[in-house]
Specification:
The protein is α/β, with parallel strands linked by helices and about 240 residues long. The chain is built from 9 helices and 9 strands. The chain is globular. The relative contact order is 0.16. The structure holds uridine-5'-diphosphate. The site of uridine-5'-diphosphate has 23 residues, from helix 1, helix 3, helix 4 and helix 6.
Length: about 240
């Protein structure tokens, strides 16, 4: 891989891709759907072949969310740590799928578990990206009361990514819920301030505020659209751009 010598014709070169756990479950909503994971893996590989450097933060909502566990009476922090461990299961599944396609990967975790993955070390992650690996970041921030969206903002900033690509199951940000309102309008671009002021359900406020303060562009797009990751990187007019 020789990204450094040949700048690719991409809108952004190094990106942080956030994949929600739900994206891994497909229509079944819980657990892992291996066909779906295989399709996402192929799209990641396609984007890397086009010249992108890609770090991926994975959610765990297809297995457990701390907030849901707490609503059933579990201690919140206990549930959150379980949620962070769930992201490691998803990361290992994605790693396997991507490597089966011949693309090297590394998994780094915010909670140390050296039998299955490396600990998160910022400078090591950067050099792995520079060397053409897909770097999968699991375990969220390593702290309860946070989300993998916040982990994505944090890692996007510390790994000096050019953009935060937030993959969702809708094709961008709307002024109201498009599933409930047929007249809902999709934004092509929106400022951080407007997204926060209107409390549009894009991501949690902590994650959004971090991106706003540090001018990290966020592109919200539909992972269900075939070829979306590469298309977004090549500057096709998809999804909603926040800031940037
Ligand atoms: N989590 C956490 N700290 C973090 C990231 C995640 O405690 O830094 C926990 C939290 O319980 C969360 C769960 O891990 O509900 C799964 O992450 P998330 O809900 O962000 O996953 P997604 O919705 O993207 O699948």
């Amino acid at each position: 891989m020789d990204n450094a010598a040949q700048p690719p014709n991409l809108r952004w070169r190094r990106v942080l891709l956030k994949l929600s756990g739900e994206a891994f479950a497909g229509d079944q909503h819980v657990g892992l759907n291996y066909d779906v994971i295989g399709r996402i893996a192929a799209e990641v590989v396609e984007a890397v072949k086009a010249g992108a450097e890609m770090a991926i933060v994975i959610g765990g909502g297809n297995i457990i969310r701390g907030g849901t566990a707490a609503s059933k009476g579990m201690d919140r922090s206990q549930g959150d740590y379980m949620g962070m461990l769930a992201t490691v299961i998803n990361a290992m599944a994605l790693q396997d799928s991507i490597e089966q396609l011949g693309q090297p990967t590394r998994v780094q975790t915010a909670i140390t578990m050296t039998q299955v993955a490396e600990p998160f070390i910022r400078r090591r992650a950067i050099s792995q990206l520079e060397n053409g690996n897909v770097v999968i970041l699991a375990g969220g921030t390593g702290n309860p009361y946070f989300t993998t969206d916040t982990a994505s903002s944090l890692r996007a900033l510390e790994l000096k990514c050019d953009a935060f690509l937030k993959a969702t199951n809708v094709d961008g940000i709307y002024d109201s819920d498009p599933k409930l309102n047929p007249y809902a309008k999709r934004y092509n671009t929106i400022s951080y301030e407007e997204a926060i002021a209107k409390r549009l359900k894009v991501m949690d406020l902590t994650a959004m505020a971090m991106c706003m303060e540090n001018k990290m562009p966020i592109l919200v797009f539909d992972i269900g659209r075939a070829g979306a990751i590469k298309a977004v990187l090549q500057g096709e007019d998809l999804g909603t751009l926040v800031g940037g």
